[in-house]
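Trying the structure run again after the queue cleared.
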Amino acid sequence: MTVRTTDPLTCDSFFEGRLEVRQPRDGYRFSIDAVLLGNAVRPRPGDRVLDLGTGCGIVPLILVFRFPGISVTGLELQPGLAELARRNVALNAMTAAIEIQEGDLRQIRLGRATAPFDVVASNPPFRKAHAGRVNPGAQRALARHEIAATLSDVVRCAERMLRKGGRFVTVYAAERLTDICGEMRLAGLEPKRLQVIHSRRAEAAKLIVLEGCKGGRPGLEIGPPLFVYAEDGGYSDALAAMLRP
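Done. Tokens:
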């Protein structure tokens, strides 16, 4: 990945320069969470995917780059980020496959879409509204804290927008695993697959990748852990593979 800085945006290059993403230099910037989520969705040909809280559009861009036979809708609450996401879609010539909608996930209903979605993806805010220091920047605060939408809001929106048997895929804080599993079960999204993410082998897990199925039967598969960094400080082989074309 290479980064070119302008004011007030940076232009980040992925997949050996084949994908470019502009994002705020000082506002909310996506992190490795988005790369993990884009890798975890794994849609089938022809699938319709909804990304809740799309930010600058990074997850739809990754998905359409890797799976050109799908269509993705990105939903974003903040007007500035929604407009930036549209610019990124156009920049990468993906307007035929990606639609960016500005809106509140607490209010969106299936009627705004032509059919139920096969997959809903989301990287919800990890922290409760009053937990810890709230970032003074509005973009970062809304993305990291449950200010505009709670975890329950995100999960229940996913359930509304999915077809029966559809999948909800999320990256979330490891320390809130029980919270998200409880919310998913209450909403009828049965947790089916879990992967635990560690920064390094000797460190406790910070993140999880969790997949649930609408109307699925009980039974959780726990996959092997993923380590972000190798012993030499660079990305692990597994993480580096997510950044290659």
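The helical segments are 32-40, 58-66, 79-91, 138-144, 151-161, 177-187, 237-242. Worth checking whether this holds up in the mutant runs.
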